[in-house]
Amino acid sequence: xxxxxxxxxxxxxxxxxxxxxxxxxxxxxxxxxxxxxxxxxxxxxxxxxxxxxxxxxxxxxxxxxxxxxxxxxxxxxxxxxxxxxxxxxxxxxxxxxxxxxxxxxxxxxxxxxxxxxxxxxxxxxxxxxxxxxxxxxxxxxxxxxxxxxxxxxxxxxxxxxxxxxxxxxxxxxxxxxxxxxxxxxxxxxxxxxxxxxxxxxxxxxxxxxxxxxxxxxxxxxxxxxxxxxxxxxxxxxxxxxxxxxxxxxxxxxxxxxxxxxxxxxxxxxxxxxxxxxxxxxxxxxxxxxxxxxxxxxxxxxxxxxxxxxxxxxxxxxxxxxxxxxxxxxxxxxxxxxxxxxxxxxxxxxxxxxxxxxxxxxxxxxxxxxxxxxxxxxxxxxxxxxxxxxxxxxxxxxxxxxxxxxxxxxxxxxxxxxxxxxxxxxxxxxxxxxxxxxxxxxxxxxxxxxxxxxxxxxxxxxxxxxxxxxxxxxxxxxxxxxxxxxxx
Length: 487
Hints:
The chain is of the alpha/beta class. It has 2 domains: 2-254 and 456-475, Aldehyde Dehydrogenase, Chain A, domain 1, CATH 3.40.605; 259-438, Aldehyde Dehydrogenase, Chain A, domain 2. The chain has 15 helices and 23 strands. The strands form 7 sheets. Strands 11-10-9-12-13-22 form a 6-stranded mixed beta sheet, sandwiched between helices. It has a 6-stranded parallel beta sheet with strand order 16-17-15-14-19-20, sandwiched between helices. Strands 7-8-23 form a 3-stranded antiparallel beta sheet. Helix 2 runs antiparallel to helix 4 (101-125), helix 3 (86-97) packs across helix 4 (101-125) and helix 9 crosses helix 10. The mean pLDDT is 97. Residues 24-475 form the Aldehyde dehydrogenase domain. InterPro entries: Ald_DH/histidinol_DH (IPR016161), Ald_DH_C (IPR016163), Ald_DH_CS_CYS (IPR016160), Ald_DH_CS_GLU (IPR029510), Ald_DH_N (IPR016162), Aldehyde_DH_dom (IPR015590). GO terms for molecular function: oxidoreductase activity, acting on the aldehyde or oxo group of donors, NAD or NADP as acceptor. This is 5-carboxymethyl-2-hydroxymuconate semialdehyde dehydrogenase.
């Protein structure tokens, strides 16, 4: 069974053990562009999840013993095919999740291929020098841990999925991937790509379905050895509770309410342009600096320039090359975003920009919104909205700016805009965040450690950190003598 999406044929069944598997029940994928159903997909429950984990477990016996060189070759082959299919992957994901088509074509889908290439290459250079303790040689190695469960969100499903899938496969794990129910289609296309590349049966599996059903069954399965999840804090708590029964190591990338610090000595044009860029993907970016903190002496100039730039944002169909931001992902999420804004307004706040749905476009299009000077502790300032909603406050001096930046339960990212390199280093060292950008935003290198502090997550992935997670790191000790001697 399949659906034709933007001219691309997408199989709507699961991918388990190297073949397509259907389910008695189905669920619909609704395009956020116009809220029309675009596919009815097989809906997994505990039985299909168990089938996928069993297939992955069987495949692990061989895949874990496959040479590094062969694993790397297959990952590079997957990347080759992804690059050849960038256009079809891009049009399907845009239709499925409403993100900009131009971004998918130029950045997101090429990054999918890069994920596979990077971890294939990193695998071949993964090493730790032997060290000696009292003439005994110590050797560190990375042993594949087993079946890895990977659950990712809808805002960049294929890119965020392969950011975990690629290192897990490179490490010698087998994978059961549960894509987001609000944007599941490119996961099915990835399954076809892995088969075309020659990945052995059962090494990569896809189970589609609803989080509380398929996701919950995967999290509590006793044969899972690693679990990586990107999503909300509330869902992470449920997953952690389930995984704790089997003591499964977890890697969580969760929410953010990141500070965007602008000092008086910053390049104002750069600071304004980058701040307006926080509306990217209709605000559905966990790393976004949604709390804009501006030094008092430049507040008026910054705000005036920001408003002019933000009013020029072009909202519309994400398939249009001239569109800057598209819709929210779904009707429930749209209502959630609107609920935050309505409660803020009811509390006495007046939006300086936006403040409601885009009535000209209708549907799931929400206007870029800005609240100025929300009271400390207010909901709009403390909770992750995950929509095109920013808050602006001002601070008197550096210590106060840092204190305001750290006044959050989250700690995923931070942005610091300043013309003083020493200040940048000083502030960066004091801000609680897993990633701090100075005079830039969204510069990502796969070698870097990535993860959040506080409620923004658990653990780090990227480079060797990914292999540390997906493997059992072993230390072997060799005595200096006794070799070749009997009893």
